[in-house]
Amino acid sequence: MPPATRSATTAAGARAAATARPAAAPLAGDQEFSFSAADFDRVRELIYQRAGISLHAGKQAMVYSRLSRRLRETSHRSFAAYLQWLQANTGPSGDAEWQEFVNCLTTNLTAFFREEHHFHALVDDLKAIASKNAGKPLRIWCSAASTGEEPYSIAITVVEALGSAAPARIVASDIDTKVLATAQRGVYDADARGLSPERLHRHFLRGKGANAGFMRVKPDLAKLIEFRPFNLMSRGWTGAGGLGEPFDIIFCRNVMIYFDNPTQRQVLQQMHGVLRPGGLLYVGHSENFTDARDLFQLRGKTIYQRV
C-alpha cells in the first residue's frame, strides 16, 4: 500500500515526542543484530509517520523481535543499515518493504463476537436503521478487520437481525495486508472461540480429509463483505479511490489506544466526515472520546453517535 502522507507539523510532533521520553537502553545479551537506542527511536518515528502508532519505550524488545525477520530476509546485519535502506528504497519494491515494516509492527488480537455486548446492541441498531432507510442499502465499515473475525461477526449479526436478503454492505479494511489476506480466505480453526454451535452450523463449512480441524465461511455470508487495505492515516477517505458512500455504522475497536491525542482527533474528524448524520461509532472497551463532544456524543456503552 502506498505510504500515508503526514503533515510537517505532525512529523515534528513525533520527533518532539521521541526526544521528550528517555531513550531506551540497548537490549542486553548476545543479540543477533545491532540495535541501539537511536535505532529504536527511529523506528518509533517512522511507524508514527506511516501508521499513527505511538510506541512507548517499553516496546523495544517487541520491535527487535518483530523486525529481526525483515533484517534476515533483506540480508542486513544491523537495524541502522536496514532503516537507512528502507528510507532510501523507492518504487514498487520500496512500497512493498514499507508495507512489510508496518505489518511487523501492528498488533492483531481478535476473536468472533469479541466484546459481545456490542453485537446485542447492534441487532437493535440495525433494525432501527433499516426501518428508517426504507430499503436503501445499509453500509457498515469495520476499520480494523485483522484476520476477519470481527467483520464476519458483524455479517452474522446482520443476517440474524435483518435476514439473508438484507440490502447491506460491509467494508472491512486493515493496514496489515497479511492479516487482511487471512480474513479474505475466511478459513479458521474449527474450535475458534466465540461461535455457538448454531452459528457454526449455519454460517461455516467444516473441513474434511486434509482440511479436518478447519472451517470456512459460507459464500452467502462472505458476499456481504468487501475486503480492502486502508491506512487510517491516509488523506484519501473520500472521492475517487476513497471509502465510497457514507456509512451508517463504523466499528473502530481497540485501535485508538495505539494513537496519541492529536492522531485520535484527526481520525475522529475523518470518521465524522464519512458517517451519515446520526451514524454510530462502536469503539473498544477502554476507549473514551468525551473530549470530542463536538463530533460524537456517547449513546451507550462504548457506542458513540455522530453529532
From the spread of the alpha carbons, the general shape counts as globular
Compressed to H and E, one letter per element, the order equals HHHHHHEHEHEHEEHEEHEEE
Strand content: 15-25%
What's the total number of strands? 10
Which class do the helix and strand fractions yield? Answer: alpha/beta
Main sheet characteristics: 7 strands, mixed
Rg over C-alpha atoms, rounded to the nearest angstrom: 21 Å
Number of helices: 11
N-end to C-end Cα span: 32 Å
Helix content: 40-55%
Describe this protein's structure:
With 307 residues, the protein is α/β, with parallel strands linked by helices. It contains eleven helices and ten strands. The chain has a seven-stranded mixed beta sheet with strand order 6-2-1-7-8-10-9. A three-stranded antiparallel beta sheet has the order 3-5-4. Strand 1, helix 7 and strand 2 form a beta-alpha-beta unit. Helix 1 runs antiparallel to helix 2, helix 3 packs antiparallel against helix 5 and helix 6 crosses helix 7. The longest helix has 17 residues. The protein is globular, with a radius of gyration of 21 Å. It starts with 7 loop residues before the first helix and ends with a strand.
Topology:
Layout: H1 8-20, H2 37-51, H3 60-73, H4 79-88, H5 91-105, H6 117-133, E1 138-142, H7 149-162, E2 168-174, H8 177-185, E3 187-189, H9 197-203, E4 204-206, E5 214-217, H10 219-222, E6 225-229, E7 247-252, H11 261-274, E8 275-283, E9 296-300, E10 303-306
Parallel strand pairs: 1-2, 1-7, 2-6, 7-8
Antiparallel strand pairs: 3-5, 4-5, 8-10, 9-10
